[in-house]
Amino acid sequence: MYLSYDEKPGTQAIGNTAEDLVPVPGEHPTISRERLITSMAMVKKAAALANMEVKQLNNRLGEAIVQAAEEIMALILMK
After folding, report:
1. What is the per-residue pLDDT for 20?
2. What residue spans carry the region label Disordered (predicted)?
C-alpha cells in the first residue's frame, strides 16, 4: 500500500498496489448485500433513538429516521 502527498492538505490519495483477492467460499468471510443494508438500518435506528433520548435530535426527524429504517428492514426481510 502506498500513500501519496499532494500539495493541498486533505487531498492525499491512498492506493493499493496488491491485486484484489477473490473470496473463496468457506475460506474468506463474506456478507450478503441484504445483511449489510439491514445492519446499517439497525445502526441508523439505534443512533436516532439514542440521539432523541439525549435531545441531540428533534423528535420529528428522529421518528422519520426510525420509520425509514424499519421500512427498509421490513422490505429486506420480506424477500
Report:
1. 65
2. 1-25
